[in-house]
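Example record for the data management plan.
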Amino acid sequence: MAAPADVLIPTPRPAVDDGAVDVLSELYVPEARQWLLTSTGRIAPEGYSWMQAVHWVAGAGLYEPRRYRSHGPRRFGVTTVRVAQELAELFPCRPGIEYLVRRTGLSERSVEYHLGMLRETGLLAYVVRGTRVSGEMAQASEFARMIPEAFDIALGIRTVLRDEDAPAYTRAMTGIAETGRELMAKLATKAARKVRKPRSKQSSKAPVKGSRKAPDQRVVTAVSHEVRCTPMQVGTSSVSTAGTTSLPPESKLASGGSKSSTPKKSKAGGRRKLNAVGRRFQLARELTQELDWLRGCSVPRIAWVARHVADAGWTVTDVKGWLHFRGEAARVRRGSGLLAVLLAGAEKILDTPEKRADAVEQWRGAQEAARRHRIQQVRARTVRHDGDWEAPASRAVQREVEAAFAQVSEVASGGRRQDDADDDQATPLELSEQERDGLRPTAWGQLMRGETDLIIGTLNVMGPEAAERIYGADLVRRARQLASAARSSLMTINHR
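Corresponding structural encoding:
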């Protein structure tokens, strides 16, 4: 149910933009709420709707960065909106600090400041937080573009959760109050415009080139094709030998006799259009920055390798889509040589923009599937680490576990005497030599990958003596050491 009109639309204030709201005292999201699972906002359906919320926060004046930190930007302003514009165009929203520095021209510290401001206002939420491990490549954080709950309250936006089992951040917009429609229209106009980097304005007080100063120190603009009051001739006659000279009116004399004394600006904004060679070098530079296995390669060499696709109008995104379609090597020794092999004949196969767009969509779909797979792996690892013990993967050990649980059930139900159960536990089931020979290589292979579930499960169910008879004392000792080290926060185990 929408709030009353006098609550939603505040009285206009001269110091704040149209999106200001007087009802909410402040807009700040603590660090614990800056994750997708803990956020109170909802996911923005697209970048355009998200930019409406960004402009609302920028004009509301409800967030002051210096209120929560002693350094960094003083306000949520134009620079933050420029960073948000770059994030609105990404899918998925997984920007690297170097990418934003290159796109915005800001420093690394400034980019980190503005990303923090977007999180503190509820406009961004972590999906996966980036990592920086010594000796490995830094992984960029992945964000979800969020619409703060305060935005829905201020404009009277009604939302509904279409699936009851879905999380709260998947709410969808169903309507808006009449009092918030005008403000939403203004925010839509702002979201459609591009906020650009402000240019330094030259002082208008500087004299124009070619001007001179009169004795009273006032600037007098030089007149082009100035008509002299006295004709150039010998004698005192007022008629020129070359013909009659007509004097211009006073309006033209005041302006210097020309249409405009200000030099005209070029229509292209001063930017020179790239030729074929320039497009090749531009594509090569972007490839060396975007592809990890091309970092450090010579830009002129990459420009020569990619000359055919550059001449065909390909972008770096098109090249990524083709590389996904073509396949990449896991181990690269010479990046320029591998790129030459992969791009051979690419411009002839994907010879239309529609084919290139289809390849890009397939590449993005594969990236999204890989991202979801990584999330599922992290969740499964977290559940396995924090949850109860899981059954081992080996069928032989599973049979022994089932037999042990069956014995416990029989004793608990009174089906067998306690002394018989004790005798059975004292003499555990023995495995044949063939089964042992099959279990030991399996356990050793899992141990090399950092997995100890098979050996630790046998230890927990059958005891140390039985585990040592099956796998050997050395293998059991290594599994115990690795399992204890995995629980330490000072050690990280990665699977290659």
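Summary line stored alongside the record: Strands lie at 42-43, 124-128, 142-147, 157-160, 172-176, 212-213, 219-220.
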